[in-house]
Automatic annotation (TrEMBL):
The lineage of its organism: Bacteria, Bacillati, Bacillota, Bacilli, Bacillales. This is Tagatose-6-phosphate kinase. PROSITE patterns: PFKB_KINASES_1, PFKB_KINASES_2. Catalyzes the ATP-dependent phosphorylation of fructose-l-phosphate to fructose-l,6-bisphosphate. It comes from Brevibacillus choshinensis. CDD domains: FruK_PfkB_like (cd01164). Transmembrane segments: none annotated. It comes from the Bacteria.
Length: 303
């Protein structure tokens, strides 16, 4: 089974305006509201692709009820732990450029964290665990490292999609896969990662720090995959992004979907790129049909 953990779920409020002018009132042209947060997005894309997963994490208040309802409607099993304060709302303003405003996280009491740990202690070596997204301020900053230490004892493979300290301090626990974007990878090493060569170089340094497989996403410029045996670069024709929110999460889901069906890392990487790109260039998340149509446009080069 695949489990996803979203420590900090959200309602993502996507709103389209013509032009953003600071200090003025804007009339929205279009809007939509979805249950968000990186682990939840991974569960949604896995569901689109036909894979079952269980979504875990903390939700609370009226926003938390919305998140639960949406997952119920989508047919995604969830075992969220309730907290008292409202789950956050993240605003995604789409004008000439995209501007994000991430809301304040609810307080997560220690008892809720212990409950999550109890849930995770039931996982087995057949399971994959996705730890994705930010960690609320009230949760220990090294929670991913702590969870991974426990998962290593159980033989659970962990996919870690985090940045900053949450990524840095968990790498030594040997995540099965990490998927930083090129900024996040650069931040890890205090470097700038702009080119394929730099992505491969710093991706390999992440292997030295403990990661088993690394995908470096580079938005519209492509992506890179490295592990101890292989290195690949993915290229695709330049496209206008329509909605890049969840593109990275779609990559994680695409890789997992293919890998858990026995595909080799090269094919899993290609599917990851197709999933990320078709999410980025469409309004909703990727679908199997869109992925199928996009796959032939991806060139994978072994480096
Ligand atoms: N403009 C675009 N055209 C095509 N694919 C895109 C575009 N922007 C993002 N993608 C796809 O989505 C993936 C993840 O995007 P990226 O922005 O790097 O990740 P994140 O959402 O984690 O920041 C990229 O590797 C690529 O496959
Ligand atoms: O937990 P974080 O890092 O604040 O990210 C949460 C946000 O990221 C998203 O999961 C989108 O992530 P990506 O665009 O990186 O795939 C949104 O749904 C959510 O609002």
């Amino acid at each position: 089974m695949i489990y996803t953990v979203t420590m900090n779920p959200s309602i993502d409020y996507h709103v389209w305006i013509k032009t953003m002018v600071e200090g003025t009132i804007h009339q929205a042209q279009k809007e939509w509201k979805t249950a968000g947060g990186k682990g939840i997005n991974v569960s949604k894309v896995l569901r689109n692709l036909g894979s079952v997963s269980v979504a875990l994490g903390f939700v609370g208040g009226f926003t938390g009820s919305f998140i639960r309802q949406q997952l119920d409607q989508d047919g995604i099993e969830h075992r969220f732990i309730p907290v008292t304060q409202d789950s956050r709302m993240n605003i995604k303003i789409k004008a000439e450029r995209e501007t994000d405003l991430s809301g304040v996280s609810p307080l997560i009491p220690k008892v809720a964290i212990n409950e999550l740990m109890d849930q995770l202690d039931h996982l087995t070596s057949d399971d994959f665990l996705v730890l994705a997204g930010s960690v609320p301020a009230s949760v220990p900053a090294d929670i991913y490292r702590i969870i991974m230490q426990r998962m290593n004892q159980l033989g659970v493979r962990v996919i870690l999609d985090a940045k900053g300290a949450a990524l840095d301090n968990a790498l030594a626990e040997r995540p099965f896969l990490i998927k930083p974007n090129h900024y996040e990878l650069g931040e890890l090493f205090g470097a700038s990662v702009e080119t394929t060569e730099e992505a491969v170089h710093y991706g390999r340094r992440a292997l030295d720090l403990g990661a088993t497989n690394v995908i470096v996403s580079m938005a519209g410029q492509g992506a890179v995959f490295v592990n101890r045996e292989k290195a690949f670069a993915a290229q695709f024709p330049k496209q206008q992004a329509v909605n890049s929110i969840g593109a990275g999460d779609s990559m994680v889901a695409g890789f997992l979907y293919a890998y858990t069906r026995g595909q080799q890392v090269k094919e899993a990487f290609q599917l990851a790129v197709a999933a990320g790109s078709t999410t980025a260039i469409s309004e909703g998340f990727c679908t199997p049909e869109k992925i199928e149509a996009f796959l032939p446009h991806i060139t994978i080069t072994e480096l």
